[in-house]
């Protein structure tokens, strides 16, 4: 089994390190070009912690492993809510802004329902993938317009703030510098994430065969939790800094990006069917826990420690039911 665990763990490490370099270089290059800090925060920085999921799902799709590709998307969303929000709430009760609840949490639930419904009746074609990506672009554009006109920030802003707080290297430089260095940093990051994604997918496939279980189970558990490590780190840091609202926005924003951006891009590049075990069980679980998180958040605009314990226990039960 060691020959499968080594590339899987090495792939995760390369994905996280490469994703950080890629986003850092892209952000610095965007600043030099003169792009608005708000736009940079809601796009490049906001998407930063989702890079491991994106690369892994696309690589798995291209390798003919839709169980890992879509298991990663659905499993990451479930882990974000039950594990990451649960741990964050346990460390510090999560405060929820009205904007994140009214707009972003509703969008998270709606896109989870739409994905679950579409996966049950349609293959993930390029046309459907393009529609999901267009939905993400439209959502981000809408958020940018709203946050330019209002001082009340939502989940996507909080997601980018969480990553910026966790990685001081993403603080935007004030002085104009050469574009060469940021572009080289971004290129090095791109090489690392592509290499890491390939190693992770290869290790996951080998691990599934070695254990004699489906690739989908590996995608929903080991791969999903591994690629969600950046979200876990940024949410925990936000919780330890008593920035509970940022932790909530990080989870909600990540889940929206995962379905629309990562699910859509995977379908666009490598069309396939979502495996039936995900359609029948895991996608409905994703919808249910999304509704549960929204319910917890709506009760007093906070997620208390006891609710965090419920979420963590729910993740333990989910993995116990899933693992053969």
From TrEMBL:
Keywords recorded for this protein, A-Z: Membrane, Transmembrane, Transmembrane helix
Membrane topology: Multi-pass membrane protein
MF (Gene Ontology): calcium channel activity; calcium, potassium:sodium antiporter activity
InterPro entries: K/Na/Ca-exchanger, NaCa_Exmemb, NCX_ion-bd_dom_sf
Domain (Sodium/calcium exchanger membrane region) ranges: 5-144, 183-323
Record-level GO cellular component terms: plasma membrane
Localization (cell): Membrane
Pfam families: Na_Ca_ex
Listed transmembrane segments: 78-96, 105-121, 127-144, 179-205, 217-240, 247-271, 283-301, 308-323
First-listed, main subcellular location of the protein, grouped into a coarse class: membrane
Gene3D superfamilies in UniProt: NCX, central ion-binding region
GO-annotated biological processes: intracellular calcium ion homeostasis
PANTHER family for this protein: INNER MEMBRANE PROTEIN YRBG, SODIUM/POTASSIUM/CALCIUM EXCHANGER
NCBIfam families in alphabetical order: calcium/sodium antiporter
Protein name: Sodium:calcium antiporter
Native source species: Pseudooceanicola lipolyticus
């Amino acid at each position: 089994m060691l020959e499968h665990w080594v590339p899987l763990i090495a792939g995760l490490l390369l994905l996280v390190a490469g994703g950080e370099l890629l986003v850092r270089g892209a952000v610095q290059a965007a600043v030099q070009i003169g792009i608005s800090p708000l736009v940079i925060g809601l796009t490049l920085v906001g998407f930063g912690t989702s890079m491991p999921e994106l690369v892994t799902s696309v690589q798995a799709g291209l390798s003919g492993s839709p169980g890992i590709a879509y298991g990663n998307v659905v499993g990451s969303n479930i882990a974000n809510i039950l594990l990451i929000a649960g741990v964050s709430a346990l460390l510090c009760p999560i405060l929820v802004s009205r904007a994140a609840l009214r707009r972003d949490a509703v969008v998270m639930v709606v896109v989870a329902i739409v994905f679950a419904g579409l996966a049950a009746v349609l293959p993930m074609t390029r046309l459907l993938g393009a529609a999901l990506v267009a939905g993400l672009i439209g959502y981000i554009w809408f958020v940018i317009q709203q946050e330019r006109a209002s001082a009340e920030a939502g989940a996507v802003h909080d997601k980018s703030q969480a990553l910026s707080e966790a990685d001081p290297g993403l603080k935007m430089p004030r002085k104009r510098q050469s574009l060469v260095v940021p572009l080289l940093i971004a290129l090095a990051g791109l090489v690392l994430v592509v290499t890491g994604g390939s190693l992770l997918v290869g290790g996951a496939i080998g691990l599934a065969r070695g254990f004699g279980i489906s690739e989908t189970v590996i995608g929903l558990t080991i791969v999903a939790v591994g690629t969600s490590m950046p979200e876990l780190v940024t949410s925990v840091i936000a919780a330890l800094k008593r920035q509970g609202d940022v932790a909530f926005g990080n989870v909600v924003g990540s889940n929206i990006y995962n379905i629309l951006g990562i699910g859509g891009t995977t379908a666009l590049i490598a069309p396939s069917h979502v495996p039936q075990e995900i359609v029948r069980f895991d996608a409905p679980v994703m919808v249910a826990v999304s509704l549960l998180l929204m319910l917890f958040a709506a009760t007093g605009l906070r997620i208390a420690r006891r609710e965090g314990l419920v979420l963590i226990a729910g993740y333990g039960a989910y993995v116990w039911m899933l693992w053969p």
